[in-house]
Amino acid sequence: MTTEHLTDLRAVAREYADVLRASALDLDRDPSLAAALLDRGLPWRQLVGLPAEYNPDPLRVRGRPVHLQSCVEQVTLLEELARADAGAVLALPGPSMSGFVIAELADADQRDRYWSTVAAAPTWTFFGMTEPAHGSDPGSMGTTLRPADGGGLLLAGTKRYVGNGARARLGVVFARRHAGPLGVLAVLVDTDRPGFTAVPLPTLGLRGLQLSELRMAEVPIADEDVLGRHKSATRQGMWAATRTFNRYRPVVSALALGVAQAGYDLVVAERRDLRTGERHLLADWAQRLAGTRAVVLAAARSADRNPGDGTLASAAKVRATRLAEEITTSAVRLLGPGARWDHPLLDKLVRDARAFEFMEGTGNIQRLTLAQGYLQGRLGDARAA
Ligand SMILES: Cc1cc2nc3c(=O)[nH]c(=O)nc-3n(C[C@H](O)[C@H](O)[C@H](O)COP(=O)(O)OP(=O)(O)OC[C@H]3O[C@@H](n4cnc5c(N)ncnc54)[C@H](O)[C@@H]3O)c2cc1C
Questions:
Q1: Are residues 113 and 199 in the same domain?
Q2: Could you list the pLDDT tens digit for every one of the 385 residues in the chain?
Q3: Does the UniProt entry include the keyword Plastid (predicted)?
Q4: In this structure, are 121 and 141 located in the same domain?
Q5: Are both 81 and 207 inside the same structural domain?
Q6: Among 118, 240, 249, 359, whose CB has the most other CB atoms within 10 angstroms?
């Protein structure tokens, strides 16, 4: 992937910034407006990474079709869209995280079922891992799959903080079928099944994403809903979840970076007369934005090469999250008393930046992954990326 191609892709993404920015505060106030966003001319099919066979009219960069199947292309495009509004990017219909699980585990029929639904009309999907009592720790997962009397399985449990859950048409749920690390399976669930309900949760940051709680009371699961059933026991739910996290963390990092860049842009636009110290601070931010962009790109290259290694993805997430928090909170100070009141967009950026700390694992967990990668000598490979 050449630098020129990525620069052109970034420029194409910028063409959609106005549409996203114009609706940012409305969507923040009312996340149910996600569907209305599409009426404003946003070509969602071109922006969410549909496979070529399900998208006859892809994004074009200098006339060349771009299907956004690589992490490198995704981080480039999505950072620029998130610079306009990260909440709107996450509120787009499409595969989001569940698409990665499908790529890892689905057989041909499941793949077609998933993608033909997602591509046909604006369709939201979800990735259901985190639980109210156990967080995202798979070892203590309480959601279960048990055999049903008449055949098939029954899915029972609660998932919380699941993006787009309440407006999704289908998604992937992780649940325990047997004890032990290999006992977690991923299943493809249609949300109109009996026993399935989803409700939006009240949130402060990235409100467009509409975090939700999924309640599953003996939802019937057929054999053909079980993802990875044609794979070996070691290539099941948690194996795919780990690779999905490694693959999606550079994307989350790019979204955080977009928020950091938006905070920087806002200060530059609103504060003309800077004192010497403030000029230095802005110069420092500009350098760190560029440095973090390079780390995110390296993490994306590493994820494209080997989604089994999340070392650089964790480094990118820690760095981008910290920068987004720092720039947005310092921007409040730089723009003076009442800044969050006078600049509603800044108020939103401050709240959005906070959400990235928890999304896809906290900073402490990323630092542990980074340390393990370092101790196992994986940073050398990562640098080569
Ligand atoms: C915007 C957003 C979107 C999300 N989307 C989804 C989604 O679509 N699907 C989904 O399933 N979930 C989703 N989540 C949930 C998210 O993935 C989890 O909340 C996140 O992974 C943290 O996991 P946890 O809640 O188990 O917290 P924990 O990992 O238990 O962390 C709790 C606290 O303990 C600390 N901690 C934990 N372990 C250690 C350790 N070993 N050493 C030191 N400190 C430690 C952490 O740093 C943190 O401060 C989303 C969350 C947010 C905020």
A1: yes
A2: 799 999 999 999 999 998 999 999 999 999 999 998 888 888 999 999 999 999 999 999 999 999 999 999 999 999 999 999 999 999 999 998 999 999 999 999 999 999 999 999 999 999 999 999 999 888 899 999 999 999 999 999 999 999 999 999 999 999 999 998 899 999 999 999 999 999 999 999 999 999 999 999 999 999 999 999 999 988 989 999 999 999 999 999 999 999 999 999 999 999 988 999 999 999 999 999 999 999 999 999 999 999 999 999 999 999 999 999 999 999 999 999 999 999 999 999 999 999 999 999 999 999 999 999 999 988 765 555 5
A3: no
A4: yes
A5: no
A6: 249
Instruction: Output the 3-class SS for 24-53.
Output: HHHHHHCHHHHHHHHHCCCCHHHHCCCCHH
Alpha helices (H) along 210-343: 237-270, 276-305, 311-334, 339-342
The DSSP string of 363-385 is HHHHHHHHHHHHHTTHHHHHHH-
CATH number of the domain residue 278 falls in: 1.20.140.10
What domain range includes position 208?
99-227
137 Cα nearest atom in ligand 1:
26
With respect to residue 318, please indicate whether it lies within any of the assigned structural domains: yes
| Residue of the CA atom closest to atom 20 of ligand 1 | 361
Confirm or reject: Cβ of 27 under 6 Å from ligand 1: no
The sign one gets for the Cα dihedral 231, 213, 81, 250 is negative
Domain boundary among 227, 262, 297: 227
Decide: 174 in ligand 1 pocket, CB within 6 A. Answer: no
Instruction: Clarify whether residues 106 and 188 are in a common domain.
Output: yes
What distance in angstroms lies between residue 130's CA and the mean position of ligand 1's atoms? 8
Pair (49, 83) in one structural domain: yes
Pair 218, 260 in one domain = no
The sign of the CA dihedral 135, 169, 356, 321 is: positive
Residue 113 and residue 214 in one domain: yes
Distance CA 217, CA 169 (A): 17
Cβ–ligand 1 contact at 137 (below 6 Å): yes
Question: Among 29, 62, 92, which residue terminates a domain?
Answer: 92
Same domain, 71 and 207: no
Could you tell me if the CB of 130 is within 6 A of ligand 1? Answer: yes
Residue minimizing CA distance to atom 28 of ligand 1:
135
When divided into structural domains, the chain yields a total of 3
